[in-house]
Hints:
The protein is an all-alpha fold and 88 residues long. The chain has helices at residues 16-24, 39-46, 53-68, 75-87.
Amino acid sequence: MKINKTNRISAINPYQKHAENRAGGTGKAKQKDEVQISAAAKEMLTTSKASGTDRIEHIEKLKKSVSSGTYYVEAGKIAEKLLPYLKE
């Protein structure tokens, strides 16, 4: 068996040249990701249905009912909320 042109190893990875160009850099500054939060989203963060001590009390009640096994989940309400997503 005869193998010709054994010096063509670079053909194994055709993307190597592209990667080397990117690693070397072309002098361009890299773009940074930017996140903008709308005014409506900021308002939603500041206002909530239950705030402060009311929220903490509600969470404690839920924790107690779950740990004691008395927490009741209405399957009908869950099904109603899931149905629109399942229809898509």
